[in-house]
Amino acid sequence: MRFPAEPFRIKVVEPLRRVDREEREKLIREAGLNIFAVPADSIYVDLLTDSGTSAMSDRQWAGLMVGDESYAGSRNFFHFESTVREIFGYRHVIPTHQGRMAENLLFSTVLKAGDTVPNNIHFDTTRANIEHQSAEAVDLVIDEGLDPTVIHPFKGNLDPQKLDRVLGELGKGRVPLVMITVTNNSGGGQPVSLANIRAVREVCTRHGVPLFFDACRFAENCWFIKEREPGQSERSILEIAREMFSYGDGCTMSAKKDGLVNIGGFLALNNAEWAERITNLLILVEGFPTYGGLAGRDLEGMAIGLREVLDEDYLCFRIGQVTHLGDLLDQAGVPIVKPVGGHAVYLDARRFLPNVPQPQYPGQALVVALYREFGIRAVEVGSLMFAHRDPRTGQMVYPRLELVRLAIPRRVYTTEHIRYVAESVIALYRERERLRGMRITYEAPVLRHFTARLEELNESETAHTVQKT
Ligand code: P71
Prior knowledge:
There is one protein chain. The chain is of the alpha/beta class. It has helices at residues 21-30, 58-65, 75-88, 99-110, 124-131, 160-170, 194-207, 218-228, 237-246, 272-285, 296-308, 312-331, 349-352, 362-374, 383-386, 415-430, and strands at residues 45-46, 92-96, 116-119, 136-139, 178-181, 211-214, 250-254, 265-269, 344-348, 376-377, 379-381, 388-389, 396-397, 403-407, 438-442, 453-456. Helix 3 (75-88) runs parallel beside helix 11 (296-308) and helix 4 packs across helix 10 (272-285). The longest helix is centred in the last third of the chain and has 20 residues, at 312-331. The model is unreliable at 465-469 (pLDDT under 50). The structure holds ligand P71. Residues 49, 51, 98-100, 123-126, 181, 185, 214, 216, 254, 256, 265 line the site of ligand P71.
């Protein structure tokens, strides 16, 4: 057997509306060829993100009914707090409404202008929150982590030598903390090994700098450790997680991923002085310390979800489903980023559409075609999201990678849905010569991909250099 069947059965269903091609064509045109502006109930399989899109279990739904909505001292907070302490091992547990608020509270408390925060690769919100403090976010992933064709078991590893150099140059006075993102979302959902985390810890200890985790997809990372790291196969996910977090001093968490909830997050840490300052800020901007920005029932959902995510049958199915999609595409010759990560499959738009040059947004051309032809929503992670004008030279700078992410929500789609997605992408690949590039007709000054409007180029404006395979 290639991978296990769904380790759950379905008790509640959410009907999906089938919208015909004609209506999809109309909707995507009205949306200015921007998939963020298409109403979600006109989408058949929605792979925009794995964040906040999980299906909760019957136990989590039951947990919502025992939500204690007291302003202070809700029993759900104590359940949540003891769960976080048991898995993550950090003393102070501060609930927030989602991950970026945990980042904001941490960085606005511990960073000063001119500081630097190293990471394997910072996620966008982490980078933005660091830069918001006039500090610098630096990415120190191993070189293999930047090449979409290199096979390596732990492509998310942070390079300890690069870190040693940065800490040697700047010292602890300029680097208040080091971060590791597990799994490394911006690098394709690639895992980090325990051996690497130990090596990073050793460098941090030598320089006297604390280590924090961006723990969004921690259980998926632990599954890869169990599968791929020598000597780990007999250990439980909980044991691996506890060891992993024991090398750190704290973490930020968006529970919208491996917390298996639709909203929620937290910050957990050992430093009592930082915790006190952060808690005071929390009361000012988010809420009382026993609820953060959440309802009591949300805390209960998180407490239960954080335990369910450690279940090996669940993780085996989850990672297997994502791998299965990658394998189906790879076997058909569709260019993807390899190896497949934990939460998403990434199409390599440069190799998929060699006839569409990067300034004509090949990734977005794929996203639009996947919706128009098949009702599937993916997201472009390429020139629409990242290309920008260099303020000094006035030239456009294009990102190295031109990708389309197919992120798989947790426990939501069946294997038949996955096959539908694979067959659709393969059919599109066979027809790829028909796809056209695009141009932007409206863009906002920052984060333009969320609201940009585009139009398709006509035949004569598209360069035709496609090689027949
Ligand atoms: C993802 C997201 C959600 C997202 C956020 C912003 C723009 C588009 C999509 C969120 C992450 C993440 C990591 C590693 C922190 C956050 C923020 N990812 N760290 O991949 O992946 O968490 O959304 O709860 O604030 O689609 P938050």
